[in-house]
User: Fold this.
Amino acid sequence: MSDNANRDDNDVSPATEPMRFDVRHLSADQLGKLGVSQIAYVKPIVVNGIAGFSIHAADGTAMAVAGDRAIAIAAINQHEMQAVSVH
Assistant:
């Protein structure tokens, strides 16, 4: 009989539990280390007198510009990234 057959369904290995944290309490350096391909943020900008929103990777790298915040968030989501608020 295998070891798995003797395990209780409620047994969860610490290695398989998801890590939980609140991104609102991370420093800029910690946020940048989370992963450029997973997290992005949006900030308002003005280019040539026109208001818009720039999309940035977690490390601060500018990736795109959108004319509307909702469109910027949708673009982040469409690329399977998590949009976070940075204040």
In short: Residues 36-87 form one domain. The beta strands are 39-47, 50-57, 62-66, 82-84.
